[in-house]
Amino acid sequence: LKRLVQLAKRESDDGELVILIPDSVVLTKLEQPAVTTDTPSDTPLYNSIVIHIEFFIHKPSAGLMFQLPDATNPTRTPLLYTQCDIIPGNARLWLPCVDDIHERCTWEFMFIVPRHPLAALLSSHNPETDRLTSPSSSATYPETSAALSSLPEFVVVSSGELMEQTPHPSDPMKKIFLYNLHVPTPPCALGFVVAPLTAVKIDAPCFLETNLGKAHSGNSFAGEDGQTTTGANGEGQRLANEGDEDEEDDEDEDEDEDDEEEDGKDSKRKKAASDRSQSKRQAKQNRGPKNSNTGGNGLISSNRHDKIGGIYVFSTPEWREELINTCRCIPSILDFYSREYGSYPFTTYKLVFLDEPYRHVISTASLTMLSSHLLHPADIIDQTYETRRIVSLAVAEQWFGLYIIPKAWSDLWLLWGLAGHMASQFLKHHLGTNEYLFRLRKDMERVCELDVNRPPICNADLASPLAGDHQAFIQLKSPLVLYILDKRMMKGGLSLGLHRVIPKILLSAMSGDLGRSMALNTTLFLKTCRKVSGLDVKSFADQWVYGSGCPVFHFSFQFNRKKLVVEINMRQQSTNASQASTVSLTNYSLHSTAGKSAPTTPAFAHHRSSTSGGGSGLPFTGQMTILVHEANGTPYEHVLDIEEFRKKFEVQFNTKYKRIRRSTKRFQMRQAAAAAEEANVSSMIGLDTDEAEDQQALFGLDDEEEKRTWRIVEWGEEDEESLASSTFEWLRLDTDLEWMGQMYLDQPDFMWAAQLQKDRDVVAQYEAIQNLKRFPSNAASTSLLRVVMDVRMFYRVRMEAAAALATMALPQLEYIGLYHLRRIYERR
C-alpha cells in the first residue's frame, strides 16, 4: 500500500482511493466476444465485483454547493446542487468514482432528505442557521422562520428517471427519492438539486391546444397530481374552443334528429346520417386546435418529444407563473432537434431554475439548471429572446456535450460548435430568418474584434480547465466556423450540409461505431463531412480550425468605360496583424454587445506565426459572392475567387453604360411613383390614416411644408455633381454571408443610402447603416430617419438606425440627428 501511495503521488494523483482486493474474492476471467465495435484489446476481462464505500463530506468548498439563509439574506431559500463540468476533477469532490470523462456506466441513486426545509435547518447543527431559527432569535430574525414555514417540502431532481418517492420507514420527517439512469454516462455529467420546489409537467397535447392566437397567451401544463393548471388567457381560449365545439356538436345532433324525423322509416338514410355525424366528429378530433400555426409560437404539428418519458420544469413557488410562461418553448425545441437530427438520448428531461447559482447554465445528463433571472412574465418581450436562446443551447448540449463527448480536450470546440449550430438553426425556425441573420452578422463582428493573436480553436496544447474568457471565445467562434463549413458544403447541393452530417454522427454513437466512450474527434468529423459532400475540407480546416485570426478585406472599385467592366481591387490582411483586441468577452451570446477592452494574453504570443490563416502566413482562400445593382434596377451576382493577398478582378457590366441622372424630370416622376406605392403598401398592411399621411413626406412626396418641418434633405440636393456621375446604384460584398471577416468597401455615401432604401436583406441594411455613420450629412440623417419611421422594416434594423442618428448630431450639421430623434420621440 505504501508503494502504491508513493506511486500515486509521483503521478500527481493525490487523494486517489486505492482498494486492495482480498484473496477470498474469486475473479473469473471472461472471454471477449468475437464481434465487437471497439478496437480489440489485449487486456483481459474479469467478472464484476460490488464495492461499498461509506464516506461523508465535511464543509465542502466545491463540488456540492449549499445555499442557506444568513444574516444578510435571512429569507433565502435553502437549496443544494452539484457543481458540474465536463472535465475531470469535479465529480470526485462529492462522489467516489473513476473520474474519467471516457468511463461510462449506468447509475442508481437513493436520496434521503428531510421532508421540510425548516426541520432540516433545525437539525443541521449549523451555528449560523441555528442563530437564525432558534426561538431566542425570533425577535431579531422573525422573517426566517416565517419564510421557511411557508415553503413546500423538499424535492430531489436528479439525472436519470424518478422511479419511486416514498416516506422514510423509520423517520417520518424524512423521505426517499430513487432515480435510475439507464444510459451509460460519465460521472462528470451527473448532477442533482435538493430544494423546496414546485414541479410542473409539460403535457404536450394540452400545451399546444392552449397556445393559440397571441404569442404571449397562457399555457397548459399537467402537474404531478394529474390536474391541469392553465394561465388566464389560455383558460379563456380553451373554454372558447370548448364552447365552439359544443355548438358544433349541437348542430350535428340537430341535423341527425331532422334526418331521423324526415326519414324515420328509411333505415338506409338513418344509417347514412349516423355515419355522416360520426365522420364529422372524427374529423373534428383529427384536425386538432383551431387556428394553430408554426409562426410566432414556434408550434409544430408532429410531436416527437411525446416519445420522451416526461418533460418537467421546476422553480420556487413564487415564480410559478413566470415558469409556465418561460418554458412554453421547450416542446418545440425538443421536437425540432428530434425531427431534424436524432431522437433525444435520455428518457426524461428536467429544467430547474435556481436562485443565484454560481453560473447561469449548468448542464448535466437529462437535467439542466438555470438561473431564475432568466424567468420572465408574458408581458416582458425583450427577455424572451435571450432566454429562449439560452434554453435552446442548453437543450442542444444534451446531444453534444453530455451524450456525445470530446475525444480530447482539443475537440471541445467541436462539441460546443455542434450544440451552438443546432441552437442557431432552431432560432432560425422559431424566431425567423431576419433575427437569425442579424444575430449571425453581429456574432461575426464580435469574433473578428476578439480573434487577435489568439490560439486556434482546435489546439493540441489546450490545457484543462480553460480560462473563462478563452472558453467563452471558443463557444462563440466554433458555431460560426461550422456555419461557414455548412455553406461551403451546400455549394454542391442543398442536401449536402451539416443537417446530414449530424444525424450520421448520432447514428454512429447509437450503433457503437464511436466506441464505448461515445467520443467524437475533429478528424472523424471532417472525414464525415468529406464523405457526405465531397468537399476537400483540408484547406478549410487549416484556415479556420487549426489556424487563428480572421481575414480583413479592403475593396475599392472603378468603372472602365472602354471594356464595360467594373474593376475591383482587393487587399487582404489578418486580424492577427493587430496588436491587441479592443473587446473583452465575459459571456457568449449570439448578439450581445462588446464589453471593455482587454489586453492580449502573453501566453498566446507564440501563436503569432504562420499557423494563422492570414497576416504573415497564408491568405484565407475561397469564393466570395458580390452583387452589383446596375442602373436598370437589376442586381447581378458575380463570384470572386480569392486566393492571394492582393488581386484585381474584372466584373462584366451587363447594362449599356449610362449615367444615373437623379435631377431629371423622369427620375423625379419615378420617385413620386415609388412614394405613392409606399403609401399604398402602408394602407394595405393596416397603418392608421394619420400615420400613413405623416409618412408621406418622409418617403418623398410633394408636401413641402412637412419636408421643412422634418428638415428632409434628399440625396443630390447637397452634392448633385457626384451623384450624377455614378454608373450603377450600389455594390455589395459577400451577399451569401460566407466569410467571417471584416469588410471595408470604398463606396460613396449615396450608394450606401440606395442600398439601405432598396435592398430587402437585413444584413445589407445593417451594413449600410454602419457605413453611413462614416459620412455624416443631412441626407444621411434623412435616410436613417426614414428607416426608424418605417414600421415595415425589421425592428433591429430600426434600432440600429436610431442609434446611428446620434452620430449625425454634429455642430456643422446643426445637430440634425438630435433634431430627428426628438421629432421621432414627439411623434410617438
What does this structure look like?
The chain is α+β, with helices and mostly antiparallel strands. Among the domains are: about 1-185, no CATH class; about 195-405, Zincin-like; about 750-828, no CATH class. It contains 25 helices and 25 strands. The strands form 8 sheets. Strands 10-13-14-16-15 form a 5-stranded mixed beta sheet, covered by helices on one side. A 4-stranded antiparallel beta sheet has the order 3-4-9-6, with no helix packed on it. A 4-stranded mixed beta sheet has the order 23-20-19-25, with no helix packed on it. A hairpin with a 6-residue loop joins strand 7 and strand 8 (about 175-185). Helix 10 packs across helix 11 (about 410-430), helix 11 runs antiparallel to helix 12 and helix 17 runs antiparallel to helix 18 (about 690-700). The protein is globular and about 95 Å long. It starts with a helix and ends with a helix.
Topology:
Layout: H1 2-10, E1 29-30, E2 45-46, E3 64-67, E4 79-82, E5 105-114, H2 117-122, H3 127-133, H4 142-149, E6 155-158, E7 161-167, E8 174-185, E9 192-195, E10 198-201, H5 204-210, E11 220-222, E12 228-230, H6 232-262, H7 267-286, E13 310-315, H8 320-326, H9 330-340, E14 348-354, E15 361-364, E16 367-371, H10 382-396, E17 405-406, H11 412-431, H12 433-450, H13 468-489, H14 498-511, E18 519-520, H15 522-533, H16 538-545, E19 551-560, E20 565-574, E21 622-630, E22 635-642, E23 646-652, H17 665-684, H18 689-698, H19 704-710, H20 720-724, E24 728-732, E25 742-745, H21 749-758, H22 762-772, H23 778-789, H24 795-805, H25 816-827
Helix pairs in contact: 6-7, 9-10, 10-11, 11-12, 11-13, 12-13, 14-15, 17-18, 21-22, 22-24, 23-24, 23-25
